[in-house]
Amino acid sequence: MSDSTRAQRIHELDVTVWVGKNGLDPVEDELNDQLAEREFVKAKFHRSARGGTTTEELADDLAERVNAEVVRTRGHTAVFER
């Protein structure tokens, strides 16, 4: 897949995982399941989840928990790939 095709696919992804006030624990299994079924998964980190941290820090932590990589963060969303 060319880089431009890959970038376009990532851009067009819908958010399918939402991280809220309960933090990363409740979404860990969901993200893991979704990554088993598809190449990329986009997650949104709500303000209540971020607290004193950044989207990048939370995304890195979540990626480590599910053995995935953060492909991109933009605003309050992150895209994961395994």
From TrEMBL:
Domain of life: Archaea
InterPro entries to which the protein is assigned, alphabetical: RNA-binding_CRM, RNA-binding_domain, YhbY-like_sf
PANTHER family given in the database record: RNA-BINDING PROTEIN YHBY (PTHR40065:SF3)
Origin species: Halosimplex carlsbadense 2-9-1
Keywords: RNA-binding
SUPFAM superfamilies linked to this entry: YhbY-like
Domain (CRM) ranges: 1-82
Name the record gives this protein: CRM domain-containing protein
GO MF term list: RNA binding
One Pfam family per UniProt: CRS1_YhbY
